Amino acid sequence: MTKDQRGVTVWFTGLSGAGKTTIRMAVEQELRAQGYKIEVLDGDIVRENLTKGLGFSKADRDENIRRIGFVSHLLTRNGVIVLVSAISPYRDIRDEVRSRIGDFVEVYVNAPLNICEERDVKGLYKKARAGEIKQFTGIDDPYEAPLTPELECKTDQETLEESTARVISKLKELGYLPANSRVTA
Ligand code: ADP
Question: Is 88 assigned a catalytic role?
Fold first, then answer.
């Protein structure tokens, strides 16, 4: 049995390696454990299906985000909590998606480039520095930080647990996690 759950898109934006996926997974785990209905759109996975074939020009990146935004909107209006983790480097398209969805919480996952590069989770910065990957965000492609995100997580200064707790309390504060609207079996 599903009770009325208020839908929202929680949009994690930031450089590669900033911690979007890590925080998103922790938030997902916590909310699932509490019984909320969740869906996830991860940039890397989406690029293998929904937006397969798109590249990294501004036009293609915008199209990638627009499609993720379209699906997020459908889910959000059906009461799902949608967790999106995608670099989404351009402010105008993030704002376009925000205004279309309405119930939109932007989380700026912020770590300085040198920290992301040190982490180099997927070895991509090394390749970008070597010129093996072109148009890599932060190296030879822009990242436009959100000006007024609902939340900023500085992952070089706070722990994963702190960031996760701050995302959850922001959702509570905004009224998206009313205690009586969880999915009950
Ligand atoms: P992104 O999805 O933004 O590309 P990932 O989540 O894949 O980034 O990688 C972030 C890396 O940073 C992980 O290896 C994670 O363990 C590490 N990390 C260190 N501190 C934090 C933190 N406070 N929050 C999130 N990730 C952190």
Answer: yes
Q: What H or E segment, with its residue span, contains residue 104? A: strand 104-110
Average pLDDT of span 110-120: 98
Q: Whose CA is nearest to atom 17 of ligand 1?
A: 19
Dihedrals phi, psi of 116, to nearest 5 degrees: -60, -40
Which pLDDT belongs to residue 178? 84
Question: What is the set of domains in the chain, with CATH numbers?
Answer: 8-173 (3.40.50.300)
Cβ(119) to ligand 1 under 6 A? Answer: yes
Tens-digit pLDDT profile for residues 22-63? 999 999 999 999 999 999 999 999 999 999 999 999 999 999
Question: Quick check: CB of 21 below 6 Å from ligand 1?
Answer: yes
